[in-house]
Write a structure and sequence with these properties.
658 residues; alpha+beta; 6 domains; three-stranded antiparallel sheet
Length: 658
């Protein structure tokens, strides 16, 4: 079905608008579901609200007015530019089986061809005028023919040319609309470049060779009135801009009037009426007075004159009114005050951080809605032009606009690096893949930058499994013969009890040990997504709350349980800790955790206990046996120093607590 755009449809629309104005003039009113005519409440009753309506103020059509707002009003400039710049400035992060070298070429192509700059400019023009196009500049191609990316030759793609809606005209007749099913159905098939355009004058450009930029998408019949373009973002907030600028200008004038001084001059009217020497003399008198007046000056007046000093102060309600007007503008733009005005709102105890996060999420939504398809096409164009093959599973993400602090970057780096290394150690990925992942991680954390192509090429591309009988270095301190014990135990964090293990040979025991350790490491990688909280000045992850079961048929855990994320224990995992009820205690107890046969396994850190007996009691309830001796007590302030200098993989042997 083809959408017909004719003068008749426009005339019908104009007729409807005239009818609306006529109804308003004759007193006809639209009522809602509530009205009380006796009390004159509700729309439709005889009150001031009943006369309110919305007029037709299509400033999108007034190009010069839009340009003056964008050029002469700082708020108008922010309304157009800020969101457009935020949508583009982060760039994209390519996810593909392509080599890191090819991905680098793609990113370089975006920069060298000025794609990001042109996309930003096109988005700005779309927001300002309600419509613009970005034309693919492909050397040697006929602009009026459909684009076939596979026919783009080496270095033929030269970038984008942005034309706003006033520099090109879309085809709107029956044969000028897209009839092929797809996301472009019903939109203009061609764009004719006007003679006033800076380039491509007179060219007829097929829709497959352009990127459409629009401000606000309109309903169908309103879009017809705008030649199937959109709406300028300034139109919806034009009245709020006028109100805000009028208020600020009024305040500026009011400040000038704060310094008025009034003299009551006897016979002033006669002096002004007489003119001549009398008026000239008065003017000289006033000028001399003005020159001599200062903080220490002298004022001469006649004995019959009166002097009145106006001590005017700005009303305290003006700042609140300006804030409310600013909030209305921010709401209209879907932009927080901290981004619109460059600072947090005065008088509010807020940093604007949560508002900025919400704003960046809305920017991401706009990126997905209006930029994913065009950027995907641009990636294929650039790849074809520079000779990089784009695989079928090619994809990308828009980079987050939220900048991480150095501490947050360090946390992400440590977590992701540990996950990559452990995935390699457990035989999930090869050494080559691990190096590639580390270098990819380094692009966003400024680390691992010394991993070069030669390092990756020389790395093993096969998953390396540990040979039977060879123990990983991180596990040499663990007695593997413990696996031969007849007890049933729980693997930390897994929530499942591991049955008794029997081994017919030493080699089989080693294989079982390695398998369990792999499960444990994978569980640790998975749990890295668990939030880390700050307790007792330490980064702690809570795995089990008080009263919960750590494994099926196990005891109700007597206290909170988790681990200190910044310390590694004997088993290669983070150092385990109990969290007692006394969160104000400055005492920390270190207990030896032994197996059922009395052999040392690892340390348990007891936090939140004011007495060693309470800590030992919770330990006994949890494991149904006594803690190993001796125990150690340190002050909470000494914990970080102890973690830094002591070896938490060894049992406690000193500072015995009685």
């Amino acid at each position: 079905m083809v959408t017909r755009v004719s003068n008749k449809s426009v005339a019908l629309k104009t007729k409807e608008e005239k009818k609306t104005l006529k109804d308003k003039a004759t007193g006809r009113k639209t009522v809602d579901s509530f009205a009380n005519f006796q009390l004159q409440l509700g729309i439709g009753a005889d009150n001031q609200i009943s006369s309110g309506t919305y007029g037709f103020n299509p400033i999108t059509r007034y190009r010069v007015l839009l340009e003056w707002v964008h050029r002469g009003s700082w708020l108008g400039g922010i309304a157009i530019d800020t969101a457009a710049e935020d949508m583009i400035r982060g760039g994209i992060e390519i996810h593909s089986t392509m080599s890191a070298k090819d991905i680098g070429k793609m990113q370089k192509g975006f920069v060298e061809l000025g794609i990001w700059d042109r996309l930003t400019y096109g988005t700005k023009m779309g927001r300002l005028y309600g419509g613009a196009i970005g034309v693919f500049l492909i050397d040697g191609h006929d602009f009026s023919t459909p684009l076939d990316i596979s026919k783009v030759g080496k270095n033929q793609f030269k970038g984008l040319m942005v034309l706003d809606r006033w520099q090109c005209t879309p085809t709107l007749n029956q044969d000028g609309l897209i009839e092929e099913f797809g996301p472009e159905l019903g939109k203009p098939k061609f764009y004719i470049v006007n003679n006033e355009s800076p380039a491509l004058r007179g060219k007829k450009i097929h829709y497959t060779r352009v990127i459409r930029f629009i401000g606000v998408e309109l309903p169908h019949y309103q879009a017809i009135l705008e030649q199937l373009w959109g709406l300028s973002v300034l139109e919806r907030l034009y009245d709020r801009l006028i109100a805000f600028d009028s208020a600020t200008s009024g305040i500026a004038q009011y400040i000038h009037r704060m310094h008025l001084r009034v003299f009551k001059i006897d016979g002033y009217r006669q002096i002004m009426a007489a003119g001549g020497k009398l008026l000239l003399g008065f003017q000289k008198f006033a000028e001399a007075m003005r020159r001599n007046q200062s903080n220490e000056g002298v004022t001469f007046i006649d004995s019959k004159d009166e002097f009145i000093a106006h001590n005017s102060n700005i009303s305290g309600g003006i700042s609140e009114a300006l804030l409310q007007l600013g909030q209305q503008l921010a709401g209209a733009l879907q932009m927080p005050l901290v981004r619109l005005f460059g600072q947090s709102p005065a008088g509010l105890n807020a940093t604007g951080e949560s508002d900025l996060r919400t704003y960046y999420e809305s920017i991401l939504q706009k990126q997905e809605q209006s930029l994913r398809i065009p950027i995907t096409k641009l990636c294929h164009l650039i790849g074809q032009s520079i000779g990089v093959k784009i695989p079928e599973e090619f994809g990308f993400n828009f980079r987050s606009l939220w900048a991480l602090t150095d501490e947050q970057k360090s946390g992400v780096f440590d977590r992701d690096t540990r996950a990559i290394v452990e995935a390699f150690e457990t035989g999930i990925i090869s050494q080559k893949v691990a190096l590639q992942e580390l270098r990819q991680l380094g692009r966003y954390t400024n680390r691992w930058n010394n991993i070069g192509d030669k390092d990756i090429e020389d790395a093993e591309d096969e998953v390396i499994n540990q040979l039977p009988g060879e123990m990983p270095k991180t596990e040499q301190k663990v007695d593997k013969d413990k696996l031969l014990s007849s007890r049933t135990f729980n693997e930390k964090g897994s929530g499942k009890a591991i049955p008794r293990i029997t081994a017919k040979s030493k080699d089989e025991a080693i294989k079982v040990f390695r398998a369990l350790k792999s499960v444990k490491r994978i569980a640790k990688v998975a749990r890295d997504e668990t939030p880390i909280i700050q307790m007792f000045g330490l980064p702690i992850v809570i795995e089990c709350n008080k009263g919960e079961k750590r494994w099926p048929n196990g005891p109700d855990w007597p206290a909170g349980y988790g681990y200190i994320a910044s310390a590694i224990g004997t088993d290669g995992d983070e150092l385990d800790c109990f969290i007692g009820d006394d969160l104000t205690s400055q005492k920390v107890f270190i207990l030896n955790h032994n197996d059922e046969e009395g052999e040392f396994e690892e340390l348990k850190v007891m936090l939140g206990y004011s007495d060693i007996q309470d800590a030992l009691m919770d330990y006994e309830i949890a494991y149904d046996r006594l803690a190993g001796e001796p125990a150690m007590e340190i002050n909470l302030k000494e914990v970080n120093s102890w973690l830094a200098h002591a070896d938490p993989t060894l049992p406690v042997e000193q500072r015995v607590v009685n």
